[in-house]
Amino acid sequence: NLYQKRKDKPQAVAVSIPATGWQMDAAEGVAYPMYCDISVSGLTSVDIADVRIAPDSQPAAIACGLCATSETLAGVIRLRAASAPAEALAAEYVITKGYVAPEGSES
Q1: Is pLDDT above 60 for 107?
Q2: d(CA 107, CA 105)
Q3: 54 with 100: CB under 8 angstroms?
Q4: Cα–Cα distance between 69 and 76 in angstroms, integer?
Q5: What is the DSSP code string of 52-101?
Q6: Residues 30, 107: Cα–Cα separation, whole Å
C-alpha cells in the first residue's frame, strides 16, 4: 500500500486535555464559553486538527459539553466546551497541513 509507505503521512500524537487552565470566552451567549489551548509547535491557522477523545474519557467529555470541532491558531489547537471538564481527558490529535495559495494566484 503506497499510503503506508509514505514518510510524510500524518502521525497521531497523544495528549492530555487538562481539567485546569480553561479560559472564559469574552463573547456572551455562546454555546461553548470555555476554551483550552493545546500547544503544537509549527501549527498555523490554515492547518486542520483532528482531535479524538479516548473512549475512557468520553463520559467526562460529554458531561462538560466538549465541542466536537476544534480551531487551529498559530501554535495551538483551541478546544471549546460548555464548562471545564471535571478530570483530564485522554486524547490524540492528527494535524493535516493546510495550503495557502501564493499572493496573486487563483488556486
Answers
A1: no
A2: 6
A3: no
A4: 14
A5: EE-GGGHHHHHHTTEEEEEEEETTEEEEEESS--SS-EEEEEEEE----P
A6: 34
The answer to whether 51 and 58 are in contact (CB under 8 A) is no
Confidence of residue 7 (pLDDT cuts 50, 70, 90): low
β-sheet with 48-53: strand ranges across: 13-17, 89-96, 48-53
pLDDT score of 10: 74
Q: Which three cell numbers stand for residue 67?
A: 465541542
**pLDDT, tens only, 59-78:** 999 999 999 999 999 999 99
Per-residue pLDDT of 29-59, as tens digits, reads 889 999 999 999 999 999 999 999 999 999 9
Q: How far apart are the first and last CA of the chain?
A: 30
Q: What cell was used for 1?
A: 500500500
> Is residue 89 helix, strand or coil?
strand
